[in-house]
Amino acid sequence: MKRTSKSKVVTHEQPIDIRMLEMLACPLTKGPLTWDPARSELISRVAKLAYPVRDGIPVMLPSEARSVDDD
Question: Is the whole model's pTM more than 0.70, yes or no?
Answer without folding.
Answer: yes
